[in-house]
Amino acid sequence: MIEIRFGSQVCGELASAAGREWLVPDGLGGYAMGTVGGLRTRRYHGLLVVPGEAPAARKVGLASLDPAVLLPSGARVRLGAHEWISGDVDPRGFELLERFDLADGLPRWRWRIGDVVIERELAMLHGRSCVAVVHRLISGGPVELELAAACTWRDAHGERRADGPPLRMDPVDGGALIEGAYRLSGPGWTPQGNWWRGVYHREEAARGLHPEEDLWYAGQFRDTLRHPGDTMSVLAWAQDPGPAPAPPPATEVVASARRRNREVVASAKPADDVEATLALAADAFIVRTNDTPVEVVAGYPWFGAWSRDTMISYEGLFLRTGRAYLGRELLRSYAATLSEGMLANTADTGRVEYNTVDGTLWFLHAVSRHVTVTGDTDLGDELLPALRGVVDAHLAGTRYGIAVDPADGLLTAGAPGAALTWMDARVYGVPVTPRHGKPVEVNALWINGLAGVAELAELAGQDADGLHRLHERAVKAFRDRFPTPSGWLHDVVDAPAPAYPLGGAAFHDDDLLRPNQLLAWSLPFAPLEADPRAVGLVGAGLLTPLGPRSLSPDCPGFTGRHRGGPAERDSAYHQGTVWPWLIGPYADAARRAGLPVDTLFTGLEAHLTEYGLGSVSETADGTAPHIATGCPFQAWSVAELLRARR
């Protein structure tokens, strides 16, 4: 894997250290997450964040475990870091960090206090909501080490305040049970029990959200480290509803996590260190939940499972990492959610919704790619009736006006207030880019899906003539309707005109330069031959070091900064913001057009050490220097970079 290591000039400078985040997942949708400098900059940061019934229904438990070293001289040196609503940062333990590294995907810190060096390692027990934190004396000593446990128990999207009830603490052997929900265990436990008021989260303030919470100081662990190599370990784990054995010792949890991560990388058979890093990054998004054997978390720290994201990510996460056996189960479980020809979009709401025009079409693509790559025709045969049902439902018409236009065989969609494509941002309930009519990528996916289902039907020995006729008609209409005089493709045709004079046209064709057209050249059964001039125009207008923008800077409505409060960010979300996942369609289209791609991934490879360490962000600013925004760890960004590089 690529080396991710920082010295004192990054670790000791607050903006640099707090702007780089690490993630350790538990395989269930929970995680430990924080920054290189140890400062909690988000409400979502914590050492034990516990998944709920759905991946997005997480709760923050153990917020931090702050070390303090008692030297033989009597001096007490605090190594933690907190920012307060007053503006103070205290303590400032990051100033004593001499190194941070991400080794086998696990974070490791080293603090130097004169000749004393203390190391911290952290890991989670895969398949269980349990974090292990190991401190080791590297040099110097003897020293006393204190670890102050700052706790909460709240929804990850909110905060808990001191004006509410204190956290319930029940004494247990070696520590405490907090709120009956999770347990702390380690040496020399001394309970405390008071509020730390006014903890400040700078990233939440930057996102226009409430930045303040109060933390409960539950108590401290204490032990003596006499000789180099001596360790002090703490475990925190969610209390299981039934009887369950205690976790293994913390040092074993760390060693086991390191071995597992190496095995994950080896099983992906990476071609180079970047691919190895991406293979491990992909592992974070594949989880098991209470309701399904396999699910995909769209992004950390705030997203849960979204069907569109899952299907776009499918090939990169499962087929490029040697996990087709898990992907097979995921496809079968998603097929069971089909209703009126639409795939459920389980999303983060905790309820099943059917509200995308493209999620189902990406599902057709994922099944087709699975069978093509693996040769698993048994799965193709099993799912074929459901896939034919999708085609039939789209021909007949389904929710939100989604239907095949009998006039040309293209797919149209739209309903008042709906945002059905992946460009689905809303501001005060109003879609920013509604894209009603016949969107270019939706119809490329429809054409691709028809060809894929026809191929599966033929593999099963079934008649596919009707599917071929539908495909041919849609391809002809696509080639007639979508090219523009400018050389690129319309983003939407037959779009309702926002306003028109009496006697004017009620519909128009939207020719804004957007990246959605890339799918018309990049998909396996793309409707168009990749034209070097057209793909080159898209690249010239949209490409950045971190991937294509969602709108050209030359177009009206372009917004170069994805910043501010929720309304400001959502207004910019698809109006110029960079989306790294689009590097996959762009790379495929460029290759097919005969354009060079040798240096296409350089910026994204460098990005692996800039924001979410070892991973790829959800979005970035559309204008230079293209600072990353959104989730630091995003499934389709990782999956498409992994797929496209290979």
Structure characterization notes:
- The protein is about 30% helix and about 25% strand.
- The protein is an alpha+beta fold and about 650 residues long.
- The protein has 2 domains: about 260 residues, Beta-galactosidase, Chain A, domain 5 (Distorted Sandwich); about 375 residues, Alpha/alpha barrel (Glycosyltransferase), CATH 1.50.10.10.
- Strands 1-9-10-11-12-19-16-15-14 form a 9-stranded antiparallel beta sheet. Strands 2, 3, 4, 5, 6, 13, 17 and 18 form an 8-stranded antiparallel beta sheet that branches. It has a 3-stranded antiparallel beta sheet with strand order 27-28-29.
- Helix 4 crosses helix 5, helix 8 packs antiparallel against helix 9 and helix 15 packs parallel to helix 17.
- The longest helix is centred in the middle third of the chain and has 20 residues.
- The chain is elongated.
- The two termini are about 15 Å apart.
- About 0% of the residues have low confidence.
- One of its GO terms (molecular function) is 4-alpha-glucanotransferase activity.
- This is Amylo-alpha-1,6-glucosidase.
- Pfam families: GDE_C (PF06202), GDE_N (PF12439).
- InterPro entries: 6-hairpin_glycosidase_sf, 6hp_glycosidase-like_sf, AGL/Gdb1, GDE_C, Glycogen_debranch_N.
